[in-house]
Amino acid sequence: MIKVKVEFLGGLDIISNHVREHKCSLPLEEGSATMVDLIKFITKNVITDAKDIPVFIEDDTVRPGILVLINDTDWELEGMEEYVLESGDVFTFTSTLHGG
């Protein structure tokens, strides 16, 4: 079991019934799960309405315009989809495309 925290900021919390922070327990073995597994978990267990999935996902990854941080570090520096999850990780997804 991998326990992580997922945060949605910049208006992105709309996809999870306006809840910004989620404590997630992924039923996977530590050392084998990657960001791909987390993205799938979020789409199945955190996003409250299936019609909101395209707000978060495009071409099987996080859509452009969403900044992804892994433990406060840009996911591009951490390997993006290939990052291996560890219990205690904090994943922050921030929309940069919110209106104003």
From TrEMBL:
1-thioglycine modifications at: G100
Keyword Protein biosynthesis: no
Post-translational events: C-terminal thiocarboxylation occurs in 2 steps, it is first acyl-adenylated (-COAMP) via the hesA/moeB/thiF part of UBA4, then thiocarboxylated (-COSH) via the rhodanese domain of UBA4.
Top-level taxon of origin: Eukaryota
Biological pathway: tRNA modification; 5-methoxycarbonylmethyl-2-thiouridine-tRNA biosynthesis
Sequence position, cross-link Glycyl lysine isopeptide (Gly-Lys) (interchain with K-? in acceptor proteins): G100
Stored InterPro entries: Beta-grasp_dom_sf (IPR012675), Mopterin_synth/thiamin_S_b (IPR016155), Urm1 (IPR015221)
Pfam family, one: Urm1
Record's keyword annotation contains DNA repair: no
UniProt keyword list: Cytoplasm, Isopeptide bond, tRNA processing, Ubl conjugation pathway
Principal location class: cytoplasm
Subcellular location: Cytoplasm
Role: Acts as a sulfur carrier required for 2-thiolation of mcm(5)S(2)U at tRNA wobble positions of cytosolic tRNA(Lys), tRNA(Glu) and tRNA(Gln). Serves as sulfur donor in tRNA 2-thiolation reaction by being thiocarboxylated (-COSH) at its C-terminus by the MOCS3 homolog UBA4. The sulfur is then transferred to tRNA to form 2-thiolation of mcm(5)S(2)U. Prior mcm(5) tRNA modification by the elongator complex is required for 2-thiolation. Also acts as a ubiquitin-like protein (UBL) that is covalently conjugated via an isopeptide bond to lysine residues of target proteins such as AHP1.
Family designation: Belongs to the URM1 family.
Protein name, entry field: Ubiquitin-related modifier 1
Species whose genome carries this gene: [Candida] anglica
